[in-house]
Amino acid sequence: MFLNLRIAVKSLAVHKLRAILAMLGVFLGALAFSGVQHVSQALERKAELEAEKMGPSLFAAVAGQVRFARDGALRLGQAKRNFTEADARALADGVPSVLSMTPYAAASLTLRSELAATTVAIIAARPEYTEIRDFHAELGRFFDDAEEASMARVLVLGRDIAERLFQRPEAALGRVVYLGSADYRVVGVMEKKGRDLAGDNQDEQAFLPLSTYLRRVANQDWVTGAFLRLAPGANQGPALAAVEDAAREILRRRHHLRPGQADDFTLLTARQSQELQFQALELVHTLGLIASTVCFAVGGMGILSIMILMVRARRLEIGIRRAVGGRRSQILGQFLLESGLMAGTGGTLGVFSSLALTSAVSAFGNMPFVLDPLLLAGTLAASAAIGLLAGSYPAWQAARVDILDVLRL
Length: 409
What we know:
This protein is α+β, with helices and mostly antiparallel strands. It has 2 domains: 2-49 and 275-408, no CATH class; 81-263, no CATH class. Helix content is 56%, strand content 18%. It is elongated and about 105 Å long.
């Protein structure tokens, strides 16, 4: 076996250009297959992590029609002003598997400190918001039930907003900021969270008690929607369908919508946006498979043609080996080893290149790094199999070379 390997290496060294061209197709096939699949898995993992940022088992009802953009972010159409706190309570009472609920109102307002001013996304909700969205204060605290009941002028800042207004998040605690002409005391700074699947940067938000916003800031009796936390397992399959049906029936009845009329609200789950991204990734998977298949096919054809040329060029060598006692099986194994070595080398280089590509994409694309050993092993096995399959016919030809015909030359 060691002798055959030495012969194979020397043969490939003699025909360097041919060997490199033959390996190139397998290299590109392994790179395309392993690289695309690893990047796709990284994107899927990122979508899962972002879904977790939305909150455990989150279910939301939003006034108006919301659509998903191609990037998975949410786009709100014409806003409706007919969603009330009573609607939110009806959902909490009538929808199965609801553990907790908060109505919420969203707006974009200017927030000022003594040092700076900035436009900020305001989220007004009840204290249950932190549990429902799994989003907590890192410094200080979130407002409590007493402050919600008394319409207290307190707020909690997202981390980026705290840095923008006070340079350091720690410096924001206890300080005063202004919404319009009214002053509000900062009681907390939220943990770093980043963007969620809805496309909202949660570090660019400020949080008010819902009663404070509705009565002191906006003077309105409608809300943007409601966040509900479902029991574990209720956010998928038949259980989620039952939740959606119940919520839709409640809101349509309360909004006096007749049969055939379109909903004036949207029901959302983090899983819906996640599934939309997964559907887009399916296209990436398919294109990666097509590209890698074409590259592997080209590589296989390249190995086949190169090996045929090698057999013709080495007929004398084959005849001499047969004359000194070499068996047909040994000749067959020799050429299969050479074709497998070419494909295996190309596949190995492609796999290592795909890991470098995946690392670069993860680093610059702010994605988790994913390493799938089974995928790597499968890519290497496929590369070697293509080499053996492409080299089988030339190896068979080499094994059938007639000794006398060669030695007469």
